[in-house]
């Protein structure tokens, strides 16, 4: 059973920059909108990621930390692709595709896999910041944030980039008791380390490159 984590925030709030401290060989980024990363370090990413490419690569057991950035564009792009279609079925299909992706993480991936879903936010009718979706089906029938035990809000107020880990009634941010303090640095590597320690999960895997492999001496197998 994999662990999905929701990272939400406004544009420019530090969602993508929170990946900056990961090493190149320890995460895979599914870059849905094919945007350049907002820092110099080069991390492994799959540009133009789709539901199909995400599902295929999530089963790569060489890694156990993944980021879908920006996951909300999966819904948006599908909505625009079907904009000329009439009827309500297209909205149902769109919602199911996104739901199936999260359920795949929860039901199929091994227990040490953590998948971060990065999304923009919008204001609900009752004035609460929530993850942005397409259409009303996910909002009214699913409650997207309810599928996550950890929902962090990226915030850049007061000139400081941070994650808010608990709601004050105006957001859907949440995290398990004593996992985080109320505000933490927007460092997704720290978040990943903390979640793994809290749930007693194996450490983050790292890809072994040819340069890292130790040469064998004569007579070794």
Which descriptors apply to this entry?
8-stranded mixed sheet, 5 helices, 221 residues, single chain, alpha/beta, Rossmann fold, two-stranded antiparallel sheet, 24% helix
Report on this structure:
The protein has helices spanning 51-58, 72-81, 89-107, 137-142, 188-198; strands at residues 3-9, 28-31, 45-47, 65-69, 114-119, 121-123, 129-131, 150-155, 162-164, 183-185. It is an alpha/beta fold and 221 residues long. It has a single domain (3-175, 188-198), classed as 3-Layer(aba) Sandwich (Rossmann fold), CATH 3.40.50. The strands form two sheets. Strands 3-2-4-5-1-8-9-10 form an eight-stranded mixed beta sheet. The chain has a two-stranded antiparallel ribbon with strand order 6-7.
CATH structural fold name: Rossmann fold
Number of helices, where a helix is a run of at least 4 consecutive DSSP H or I residues = 5
**Strand line-up across the major sheet:** 3-2-4-5-1-8-9-10
Largest sheet: 8 strands, mixed
Distance between the termini: 35 Å
CATH architecture: 3-Layer(aba) Sandwich
Which value, in Å, is the CA radius of gyration? 18 Å
């Amino acid at each position: 059973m994999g662990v999905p984590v929701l990272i939400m925030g406004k544009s420019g709030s530090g969602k993508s920059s929170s990946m900056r401290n990961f090493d190149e060989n320890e995460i895979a980024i599914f870059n849905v909108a094919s945007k350049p990363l907002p820092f110099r370090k080069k991390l492994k990413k799959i540009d133009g990621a789709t539901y199909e490419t995400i599902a295929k690569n999530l089963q790569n057991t060489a890694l156990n930390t993944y980021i879908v950035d920006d996951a909300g564009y999966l819904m948006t792009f599908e909505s625009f692709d079907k904009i000329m279609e009439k009827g309500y079925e297209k909205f149902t299909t769109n919602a199911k595709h996104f739901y199936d992706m999260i359920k795949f993480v929860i039901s199929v991936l091994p227990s040490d896999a953590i998948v971060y879903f990065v999304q923009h936010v919008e204001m609900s009718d009752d004035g609460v910041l929530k993850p942005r979706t397409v259409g009303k089906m996910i909002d009214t029938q699913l409650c997207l944030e309810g599928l996550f035990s950890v929902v962090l809000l990226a915030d850049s107020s007061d000139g400081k980039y941070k994650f808010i880990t608990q709601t004050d009634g105006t957001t859907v941010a949440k995290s398990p008791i004593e996992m985080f303090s109320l505000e933490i640095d927007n460092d997704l590597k720290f978040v990943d380390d903390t979640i793994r320690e809290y749930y007693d999960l194996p450490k983050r895997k790292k890809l072994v490159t040819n340069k890292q492999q130790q040469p064998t001496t004569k007579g070794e197998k």
